[in-house]
Every structure is written in C-alpha cells, then in structure tokens.
Description:
alpha+beta
Amino acid sequence: MSAVGDRAAALRREFDAAFTEPARPLGVDGDDVLAIALAGGRYAIRTAELAAVQACPPITRLPGPVPALLGVVAVHGEVLPVYALAALLGLGPAAPARWIAITHRPAAVALAFDGLDGQRRITPEALVAAPASGPLLDGVVAEPGGPRAMLSITRIVAAIAAREESP
C-alpha cells in the first residue's frame, strides 16, 4: 500500500473511532477538526461539517467555464462533482488533488486539497473570530505551529450552489 493509502487508512480509523465516543454538544468543550494544507497555507475544517475524507480517487475531467470544477469522482456508487478548494478560496491554481473532503447530503460535493496534517480537537478559546479574513472563513485557530484559518464548509457549499444558479 502507498504512503497516501496508509495515511488514508489511519485517518479513516481515527475518524471512525470518533463515532464510538459518547456524544458531546458541539462547541461546548471544543470541536474536532481536520488540519489541512492548501496552496502552501494552513487551514482547518470541522469534522462535523463533513460526511467523509479519503484519498482522492481518479477524477474524470469535465470541460466547462468553472475553473474550480475539476470534474467528477465515483464514491461508494455515487457520482460527485469535485471542486478545487484552493480555487474556490481564490488562492490560485490548485496543486494536484491528493485528498477529498465530502460534504453532507443533499448537496454533497467533493472538495479537493493537497495536504492532510491530521485530526485534532480544538478548545473554544483556540478559535479566534476574524471577520475580515474572508467570507468563507469562520476565524483563525491558534496552534503552537502557527495559526490555521477555519474554513466554513457550509458557506463554501452555499457559494458553489449560488454560482451554479447564476446564469
């Protein structure tokens, strides 16, 4: 198995194990987040906003006017559009997709990114509001290795839907 496959399997086990723990109210004692690397920057995504994370399967490219739309992937028998997260955030051209984060239904999409730094729990005090940081962000997570911008998957999916509805 490749290094990416080994890492994906370890992260899948860690993600699945989180569901065996007793339920905690969101945000009370912190949030579980994925720490990701994207276009050379450090970002975080709340795991509660995701249905799954996995190594990126082969992408079937599609022609079209939306640069962020990389194509489609088949995941568990379902065909999902794949968007380059870096392009959606205006960070320029995306690096090759190594990972995808799959959002919840009914508007399930796959968001492609290039690096996965792990899963961790952050305390409420670690998330600092930063309204000027961008409309698709929820603030900044203070970490010993440096800050991470917290992505709002809900707003990212809403922005994708708004682009698809506009003529």
